[in-house]
Amino acid sequence: MSSILRILLLIASLGTAFLICHKIRKSKVRQEDAAFWLVFAIILAILGIFPRVTYALCDLLGIMSPANLVYLVIIGLLLEKLLSLSIQISTMENKMEVMAAEIALRSENTEEQIKELDKEEKHE
Predict the structure, then answer these.
(1) What is the C-alpha separation between 100 and 90, in angstroms, rounded?
(2) Domain count, the chain
(3) How many CB atoms are closer than 10 A to CB 71?
(4) What is the residue range of 29's domain?
(5) I need a surface site. Which of 1, 15, 33, 57 has the fewest CB within 10 A?
(6) Which residues contact 45 (CB under 8 A, 6 or more apart)?
(7) Are 9 and 48 in contact (CB under 8 A)?
């Protein structure tokens, strides 16, 4: 693995870790998401610091180039995150539809109650 790729991996891991720690301090990221990104940064750091791990995994998996393995790992982790975010969005959209229907029913009932109260006041 080239030294440039190793340096880029280290910079990316440090940048990711710094950014996530900053967001955690500002309470702008959930703990589950922060854990994912910290693990992501650790994996990048391991691949950058210990190139022998990358070579061993290449031999084990039959991948020709360590750089290809690095890209494969990054793409795999990001696809996993994309899938989990997609599931979260679908769940939230379903909850929003239920909440919107519930709010519509409640506002309709409230309007009917207001009309009934107005009628009662007029009759008195």
Answers:
(1) 15
(2) 1
(3) 13
(4) 3-123
(5) 15
(6) 9, 10, 13, 14
(7) yes
